[in-house]
Design brief:
The structure is a single chain. The protein is about 15% helix and about 30% strand. It is α/β, with parallel strands linked by helices and about 230 residues long. It has a seven-stranded mixed β-sheet. Strands 7-8-9-10-11-12 form a six-stranded mixed β-sheet. The structure holds nickel (II) ion and manganese (II) ion. Manganese (II) ion binds near residues 65, 66, 146, 172 and 195.
C-alpha cells in the first residue's frame, strides 16, 4: 500500500491489492482511504478537495481542520464515512456514515477499523475525538487524531502497529517530547509525524523530532513532505 501525506493530519492510503471480501460493501479491488481531509483552506495542502477521490473517509473529530472537506468529497465520490456517533451527526443524510465509538471495531470490505481513545474535544456537544486503527492488506495503520499523550496508547503495543501517524505540533495536541513518549508506549514499526507547521502556532522541527525519537526509541521515523508517499 501507499501512504501519502496531504498535509496537516490528512493522509491518503491506497491499496491496489485484491483484498478478500469479508462482509458487506461494494466489490472492489481498489481502496483509497482518506483520513481527516482538510484540504481547501489548508495553507499546508497542495491538493484540492476536488481532485481527491476516496472509497472510504475517516474523520477523527469535528474540528474544521479535520472534518474539512469530508462532506463534499464523500458526496462526490459516494464514499463511506467512519466517525463517532456525534461527529457522524455532522453529515447530511445523503452521505453513508458508519458510526462507532471508542473501543469498537467495524469490519469492512477493505479490512476493518477500530476506534481508539484520544484526549481532545470534537466541536460537537458531548462528542469526543478519536483515533483510528485501520487494517488494510493485513497491516495496521494507527492515526492518533488530535490528542495529548494518554496511557491508553500502551494498549496499542499489543496490536503490532505497522505505521503510527502521530501529532507533534504541541498546543492543541502532543508536542515532540510527548510524541516521543507515545512511540515508546505504542512500539510501532515506523512513525510519521503530522499536525505541525500548518500555522506558526504549531511550528516544529520534524527532523529534530526524527533524530531524537529514533535515538531514544529505536523506531524509524519518516518525515513526509506534503504530497510525499511512503510505501508500506
Ligand atoms: Ni482538534
Ligand atoms: Mn487539529
Amino acid at each position: 500500500m501507499n501512504i501519502q501525506y496531504l498535509g496537516h493530519a490528512c493522509f491518503l492510503i491506497t491499496s491496489n491489492k485484491i483484498t478478500p471480501k469479508t462482509t458487506s460493501g461494494a466489490a472492489s479491488d481498489h481502496y483509497s482511504l482518506l483520513i481527516d481531509p482538510f484540504l481547501n483552506g489548508n495553507p499546508a495542502a497542495k491538493a484540492r478537495a476536488e481532485d481527491v477521490t476516496a472509497t472510504h473517509i475517516f474523520v477523527t473529530h469535528g474540528h474544521d481542520d479535520h472534518l474539512g472537506d469530508a462532506v463534499s468529497i464523500a458526496t462526490r465520490c459516494a464514499s463511506t464515512v467512519y466517525a463517532t456517533v456525534e461527529t457522524g451527526g455532522r453529515f447530511p443524510q445523503t452521505v453513508k456514515v458508519e458510526v462507532g465509538q471508542i473501543g469498537g471495531f467495524i469490519r469492512s470490505d477493505f479490512g476493518g477499523v477500530k476506534f481508539t481513545a484520544a484526549a481532545h474535544g470534537s466541536n460537537v456537544p458531548g462528542g469526543l475525538a478519536c483515533g483510528f486503527l485501520i487494517e488494510l492488506e493485513g497491516k495496521k495503520i494507527y492515526h492518533a487524531g488530535d490528542t495529548g499523550l494518554i496511557i491508553d496508547m500502551m494498549l496499542l503495543a499489543e496490536e503490532n502497529v505497522d505505521v503510527a501517524l502521530l501529532p507533534i505540533g504541541d498546543r492543541f495536541t502532543m508536542g515532540p517530547r510527548d510524541a516521543m513518549r507515545a512511540v515508546g508506549f505504542i512500539k510501532p514499526k515506523r512513525v510519521v509525524p503530522m499536525h505541525y507547521n500548518t500555522w506558526p502556532i504549531i511550528e516544529q522541527n520534524p527532523e529534530l523530532f526524527k533524530k531524537e525519537a529514533e535515538a531514544v526509541t529505536g523506531v524509524p521515523v519518516s518525515v513526509l513532505a506534503v504530497g510525499e508517499e511512503l510505501q508500506c
